[in-house]
Specification:
The protein is built from 19 helices and 16 strands. With 502 residues, the chain is of the alpha/beta class. It folds into two domains: 67-318, no CATH class; 325-420 and 462-496, Rossmann fold (3-Layer(aba) Sandwich). Strand 11 (292-293) and strand 12 form a beta hairpin. The longest helix is centred in the C-terminal third of the chain and has 21 residues, at 359-379. This is O-fucosyltransferase family protein.
């Protein structure tokens, strides 16, 4: 609050005489300050006779506010870390949604490491409710900066459309919470289905509901509090409640004062039919990321379902979800029109996280791959240069005194790279956003005027990484990637599925 310009009129001698009044004012202002604090909104709701969060605090229904959503049940989760991790969570979320017969809320693409989980192996992770709140807060930042792009805009969800119901986050929040999301839209269809109230109180209520910071709302929200420190989700393994083989060691227990253990739990028994979560309109998970560690999965261990053919089909479909057609077409175009020759792709992750300490191993792998390619070319009596596409987070200006600089100067190699500002990338981004795959791939309300176009478009997203991965999928001389990089894993999966044919 701004202070008055004439602060000098508050004399020291008058402070004592006005002290009771000041105290009285502070006492009166305290409830008001708490009212506007999302942290204390739940406490006040229990102390005072405000309407519950499910009614929005204003008499308006907030838990499925639109009649369009009547009878629908949803699953929401908190993505985090880099894009490849976010895609991994999307796959697990699709399986969970199919298992629990819920409509999957498809989130936006978050900035790289804007939301961080922590470490499951070290039993140091962000609480699920705090993680969901962080995702909401970052999503609102993307909205305000007009940088919103849905995971469904980047990843082609059509392979699972017939077996997993989905709804775009913008559409869901607009209908379920009644808030205005049109600033997160690029084209007319999204604008038409993402309108609502722009009052701050509406956004705060929606944040409380989606995060579960206000606790469970019967018939409305069931926030899942189990995380990778205590739980590994399974299905049809007949070991519900059994101890997982990976547990915190004694030293970690003493150091971190850990008293809990990890158990394997059947996700359907815990959250499906007959459970407390069954009647909730929204089932809110924290992270759904998982990875192998010491013979176990860190959180989500559902890879096959021989007894349930529908779920088995979902598991097979989500094993590989390609990029949107516009991105795949751009990669093929660059390979065909720019490189034109058979080429090698090198993915070199050198600056991010742990990878900045492993340059020697990364460059060593590239050297070995180049030797193998050259030998193969000699066997085929090919005396031309090795054409190589380089995707790296190290800017060319910083290649000096690195192995990359040596390769760039060597006439035996012809290098190709892409930049975010290249015409191909920019044109692809514009076509991609105009297609509105994220909104079109999921639930759409029937009672909306789809001709309405009353919002300015968001910024074009940065899609260089996705186009580069698409180019690498076309590398007929092979691929070499940074060990441990999820990006390298994504490219290997694309190549395994032979997505590039030209």
């Amino acid at each position: 609050m701004d202070l008055p310009a004439s602060r000098g009129r508050w004399r020291r001698r008058s402070a004592r005489s006005h002290l009771p009044i000041v105290v009285a004012i502070l006492v009166l202002l305290l409830p008001a300050s708490l009212l506007f604090s999302s942290t204390y909104s739940t406490m006040l709701r229990s102390l005072l006779s405000f309407p519950s969060a499910a009614s929005g605090g204003s008499g308006l229904p907030q838990c499925g506010a639109s009649a369009e959503l009547e009878g629908e049940r949803f699953l929401w989760y908190a993505p985090h870390s880099g894009f490849s991790n976010q895609v991994g969570e999307l796959r697990n979320a699709a399986v969970a949604a199919a298992l629990l017969n819920r409509t999957l809320v498809v989130p936006p693409v978050l900035d790289h490491h804007a939301v961080v989980l922590g470490s499951c192996p070290k039993f140091r992770v962000t609480e699920p409710a705090s993680l969901r709140a962080a995702v909401w807060d970052h999503t609102m930042q993307l909205l305000q900066e007009r940088r919103y792009v849905s995971v469904g805009d980047i990843i082609d969800l059509s392979p699972i459309k017939s077996i997993v119901r989905t709804i775009d986050f913008r559409v869901f929040v607009s209908l379920w919470c009644g808030v205005d999301m049109h600033k997160a839209c690029f084209s007319g269809l999204c604008c038409a289905v993402s309108s609502g109230s722009s009052m701050p109180a509406e956004y705060n209520r929606c944040r409380a509901l989606l995060s579960g910071l206000g606790g469970s709302e019967k018939g409305c929200v069931y926030p899942v509090q189990d995380d990778c420190r205590t739980t590994v989700w399974t299905y049809e393994q007949n070991n519900d409640g059994a101890l997982d083989q990976f547990q915190p060691d004694e030293e970690l227990k003493r150091k971190k004062k850990i008293s809990y253990v990890r158990r394997r739990r059947d996700i359907y028994k815990a959250l499906g039919s007959g459970s407390q979560a069954e009647d909730a309109t929204l089932l809110a998970f924290g992270t759904l990321f998982s990875g192998p560690y010491k013979g176990s999965e860190s959180y989500f261990d559902i890879h096959e379902s021989p007894k349930d053919q529908r779920i088995q089909t979902v598991l097979e479909k989500i094993e590989f979800l390609p990029f949107a057609p516009e991105i795949m077409a751009a990669g093929k175009k660059f390979a065909k029109d720019k490189i034109k020759e058979p080429f090698l792709c090198a993915q070199l992750r050198l600056l991010d996280g742990q990878f900045k300490n492993h340059w020697k191993a990364t460059f060593s792998a590239l050297k070995e791959k180049l030797k193998a390619v050259e030998l193969e070319m000699k066997r085929n009596k090919n005396d031309g240069p090795v054409h190589m596409f380089i995707m790296t987070d190290l800017p060319p200006a910083n290649w000096t005194k690195t192995y990359l600089a040596n390769v760039a100067k060597d006439e035996r190699y012809k290098l190709y790279t892409l930049k975010e500002s290249d015409e191909l990338v920019l044109e692809t981004a514009e076509r991609l956003m105009a297609a509105e795959h994220g909104v079109r791939s999921g639930f759409l309300p029937k009672t909306v005027d789809y001709t309405k176009k009353d919002c300015d478009p968001v910024q074009l997203p940065e899609i260089l990484l996705y186009v580069e991965e698409s180019v690498c999928s076309c590398a007929s001389l092979g691929f070499v990637g940074t060990a441990g990089s999820t990006i390298a894993g994504s490219i290997e999966t694309m190549r395994k599925n032979e997505v590039c044919k030209w």
